Amino acid sequence: MPAKNILITGRPGVGKTTLIFRLIEQINLPCVGFYTAEIRESGRRMGFEAIALHGPKLIMSHVDIKSPYRVSKYGVGVANFERFLKEIPFFDPKYAFIVIDEIGKMECFSPLFKKLILKLLDHDTPLIATIALRGDAFIESIKTRHDVHVYTVTYDNRDKLAMELYPVLKELAKGRNKEA
């Protein structure tokens, strides 16, 4: 049996989020969670939004957000992010997988997010998440857990990795849904 939790890492822009979406589409089972997307204005990146797979979205960071929490030029709205997280039914048993994109510096400013990640890793439902290639002690400790398998996406392997992970997810899904 493979490790219950799948972590996908790699350099920024290599295709981690795209890989997650391909896997969700291939497995065709109910998933819950969120992903992050760039906010672009006139072709320039201005921040990031967090978007639930089914439900709310919010501006998570932006050049115009005034906050003590910053990543590069972006202020991070930690309180709004925590309210957003509380609206997502992560522990609803009808979902075959939990999806988090991503476990990164911006998200880890939130103590609630860090606690949630630990609970999700321990929960019965398998977690599929992207995680920063390099991070603080919290991020690095997650990568070394016995119940995770870390896959590194590169430009050379990103197409092949979707095919490699599909049978792993099918195995993890057994017993979670009659279609698996």
How would you describe what is shown here?
This protein is an alpha/beta fold. It has a domain at 5-35 and 89-173: 3-Layer(aba) Sandwich (Rossmann fold). The chain is 31% helix and 31% strand. A hairpin with a 2-residue loop joins strand 5 and strand 6. Helix 1 (16-27) crosses helix 5 (158-173). The longest helix has 16 residues, at 158-173. The radius of gyration is 16 Å and the shape is globular. The model has no long low-confidence stretch (mean pLDDT 94).
In short:
The protein is of the alpha/beta class and 180 residues long. The protein has helices at residues 16-27, 78-86, 111-122, 137-143, 158-173, and strands at residues 5-10, 31-41, 44-52, 57-62, 70-71, 74-76, 97-103, 127-131, 148-153.
Ordered list of secondary-structure elements with their pairings:
Blueprint: E1 5-10, H1 16-27, E2 31-41, E3 44-52, E4 57-62, E5 70-71, E6 74-76, H2 78-86, E7 97-103, H3 111-122, E8 127-131, H4 137-143, E9 148-153, H5 158-173
Parallel strand pairs: 1-8, 1-9, 2-7, 7-8
Antiparallel strand pairs: 2-3, 3-4, 4-6, 5-6
Helix pairs in contact: 1-5
Features:
Rossmann fold, nine-stranded mixed beta sheet, alpha/beta, single chain, 180 residues, 31% strand
CATH topology of the domain at 5-35 and 89-173: Rossmann fold
- Major β-sheet strand ordering: 5-6-4-3-2-7-8-1-9
General shape: globular
Instruction: Quickly name the level 1 CATH class of the domain at 5-35 and 89-173.
Output: Alpha Beta
